[in-house]
Fold this sequence. Notes:
Strand 1 (132-134) and strand 2 (137-139) form a beta hairpin. The chain is mainly alpha-helical. It has helices spanning 3-34, 41-59, 63-86, 94-116, 141-163, 165-175, 177-182, 187-213, 219-234, 239-259, 265-279; strands spanning 132-134, 137-139. It has 11 helices and 2 strands; from the N terminus they run H-H-H-H-E-E-H-H-H-H-H-H-H. 74% of the residues lie in helices and 2% in strands.
Amino acid sequence: MDPSTLLQYLVTGLTLGSTYGLTALGFTIIFNTTGVINFAQGEFVMLGGMMSVSFMAALGLPEPAAVVLAVIGATLIGALVERLAIRPVRHCPPINLIIITIGVSILIRGLAMLVWGKDTHALEPFSGSAPILVLGAAIMPQTLWVLGVSLVLLSGLKLFFSATIHGKAMLACSYDAKAASLVGIGVPRMVRLSFMISALVGAVGGVLLAPITLTSFDVGVMLGLKGFAACILGGLGNPFGAAAGGIILGVLESLGAGFVSSAYKDALAFVILLVLLFVKPSGLFGRKDFKRV
């Protein structure tokens, strides 16, 4: 295989991996605050793309305005999910809450099918579709948007958790929610904020990916599974491990499609994930004493 083809696979893997990483970040943010795996995270990704397409078609908005409105809409839906589905049963065991998130995922997917139908929809690339040639590899401008925005989001979250009072309060809730409430932190407010941030991050990923892979009512299922796999691969509870896990998974998937067959790319990525977990169950960057599931 010539170097330009290998570079092409790596660029494709980085692009897909960035969106997997954003989805995994959403899983991690909610898990760190509540101890719950939110299996509706993939639907937030779907909503970002579908709502952008809908706002452009139904309201005639230009693409930037539709994208911003879609991200805001998905963020508000994240807040509604926390308020209506999670908060009333917040004292239930984590397994019950996880099952509820699966129900929320099915509900959102069903409503999306009723509203937008089963057709696949396209979102225009943000900066045209003329490829940029680099060392023989064709890089689409949308790829640069995916990589750049993912990097900005990751840096912003790093700053949020390390330098803001709300970020530190969410970290305090992740260590001990009862102790956090005793020092005056509003734990329910932090939980709602975690759902809003994870929905925002997921919707941004969906908006970025829609011009590349198209979007439909059920696109969140596989993206959610890939994001969860990336989260486990990087280490459950580690935001930056989750982002790294997404990149690794995307590159493995792309190389698997190139060297083996595109028909087995999904299976190959999950097989490698399982092998790694047999060797290192806590994930690549997870804590060895991690016990919550």
